[in-house]
Amino acid sequence: MGILDGTMVAVGIDTLTVAFDASLSAIGWVSTGYLLALTLTIPVTTWAVDRFGGRRLWLAGLLVFLGGSLASGLAWNIGSLIVFRVVQGVGAGVVDPLVLTLLARAAGPRRAARVMALMAGVLSLGPVLGPVVGGIVLEGLGWRWMFLINLPIGLVAFLGALRLAPRDPAPEPTASRLDVIGVALIAPGFTSLMLALSQAGERAAFTVWQVLAPLTVGAVLLIGYAVHALPTRRTPLLIDLRLFTRGGFAASVTVMGLTGLTMFSALFALPLYYQQAHGHGTLTAGLLVAPLGVSAAVAAPLAGRLADRFGAREIVRAGAVVAVIGALAFAGIGARTQELWPTLAALAVGAGLGLVGAATMGSLYRTLPPPLIPQGSSVLYMLNQFGASVGVAVVALIVQTAGKADVIRGLHGVYWFMTAAILIILAGTVLLPGRPGARPTAPASGHETQTADLTLPGA
């Protein structure tokens, strides 16, 4: 629901501008406010899942999201819509990372790859279905239904959780305290970085004060968190940075961040190609982009089964090679290229990234000890969102720099940028787990053999 909402709002920007008689920059805060609220909430969810229980927190987050959806659909001016989207973002900041934690706990290490592969397939479809569903909703029902459509879906999810989700155990009296200093540093720090990237994408520049100011604030706050989370500290930490001493974890979250960057770069650039080079409308362009997400959704469950047999490293390598072939094919298309060829290239990129993302998510949750799953989920989701924001900002900068007169040259630059990101993924596979049962060939440090013994302060 959250992914669909985000992409539908992107399609409906012109409609909202007319409906509220507002500027484009004001409408931009409908998306930016949601994204910032989501990012600000994720770190707190890491602590709250053990303090209040996964089932209770899931139901509460879903209710907040649905309340924000209903209020957004009833908004009377642009200010109220932005406020209600912030409420919706708080709910999404609880539900989005929490679903990964709940699935990982339910699946266990043996089934983590398959379950996360199914989840990766769902996540791959969302950004592609959004423009299609958004075009249909906007043409047939009006802008309010971009948000009201969440209500029947969310009601089914809520009732399903009441019936099927396992009940939470009684809260432990020794549950760790909330790392208030950590929240005050990492949440606004990461949010400031997301704001900087959002402004960079909107203004197609990185050297303006609207980008540099939040970028500086974010960097200072995150450095402050790193100092706060020094290994000598014994207070409970929101995210223990010792996680990154595990080569497999560090490689997995980096690969997922680069996967988000590459996928959203393609999702942002490909509609521009169909609209500006071929003159298609929004709905047609959205339909032509669909093969990218469909192939990723089909490849993801396959990746889970293959990773169980051959290991994540080999599957991620194969997926990266397929995605590179597709990205290089995109770098050769022109304004007169038949639409069959970009469609085939999109299928290759989608399938390759589907293999990469699903196998990487599975390997992450297969190797994380249960107490570290909430923290791992938060880091994974934040870096994936961060990668997506970087991708959109860089694509906007490349395309705007090339100008409308030479849109093809700009898009070629985007696909060379994607190719470089995928090659970095390929290089990082040496740190991913290999064939199940095989000894690691390139451990990152001595911590790699001590992962099961990593105990977090207050855990």
Describe the structure.
This protein is mainly alpha-helical and 459 residues long. The protein has one domain: MFS general substrate transporter like domains (Growth Hormone, Chain: A, Up-down Bundle), CATH 1.20.1250.20. It has 15 helices and no strands. Helix 3 (24-52) runs antiparallel to helix 14 (373-402) and helix 8 runs parallel beside helix 14 (373-402). The chain starts with a helix and ends in a 31-residue tail after the last helix. The model is unreliable at 439-459 (pLDDT under 50). It is a multi-pass membrane protein.
Draw up the topology in text.
Blueprint: H1 2-11, H2 13-20, H3 24-52, H4 54-73, H5 78-140, H6 145-148, H7 150-164, H8 180-203, H9 209-228, H10 247-277, H11 282-310, H12 312-330, H13 340-367, H14 373-402, H15 407-428
Transmembrane segments: 26-45, 57-76, 82-103, 115-137, 143-166, 178-198, 204-227, 248-274, 280-303, 315-335, 341-367, 379-402, 414-432
Region (Disordered): 437-459
Pfam families: MFS_1
Helical amount: over 70%
CATH homology superfamily name = MFS general substrate transporter like domains
Count of extended strands: 0
CATH names the topology as Growth Hormone, Chain: A
Largest sheet: none
> Which stretches are low in confidence, meaning pLDDT under 50 for 5 or more residues running?
439-459
State which percent range the strand residues make up: under 5%
Mean pLDDT: 80
Assign the CATH architecture: Up-down Bundle
- Order of helices and strands, N to C? HHHHHHHHHHHHHHH
| CATH class placement | Mainly Alpha
Main location: membrane
Domain Major facilitator superfamily (MFS) profile: 1-439
Keywords: Cell membrane, Membrane, Transmembrane, Transmembrane helix, Transport
Family: Belongs to the major facilitator superfamily. EmrB family.
